[in-house]
Amino acid sequence: MEFHFINPRKNALVYIIKILSGSLILWYGLRALGFPEPYWAMISLIIVTEPDMTVAKANFRARLINTISGAIIACLCLVVFGATFFSMLIALTLAVIVAMLWQNYPSNWRLGPATVVILMSAAFAGGGLHQELGLALLRVTEVITGSTVALLQTVIYIGVVHRLQRDA
Question: pTM for the complete prediction?
Answer without folding.
Answer: 0.81
